[in-house]
Prior knowledge:
- There is one protein chain.
- By secondary structure, the chain is mainly alpha-helical.
- It has one domain.
- Helix content is 76%, strand content 0%.
- The chain contains three helices and no strands.
- The longest helix is centred in the C-terminal third of the chain and has 26 residues, at 48-73.
Amino acid sequence: MSKNLAYKASAILFFIVFAINVVQIKGSFIPVSQDIASIGVNLFGIYVTPFELLSLILVGGIVGMFYITGKEEQ
């Protein structure tokens, strides 16, 4: 019973924090320009570290998925 309450409490806390962050977003999401060159410069300039970390996390998730599914077949 205690675990079930902890799961519900953590889910509610997650959604509260998520909602607060979404409400704090200011501005519009209408693109000002669609310049592909500036997107490339930003992606491989100032955002290169988060881009590479995200790619490592995704590859690790894919490898882990194949490991888990392959383990069941044995």
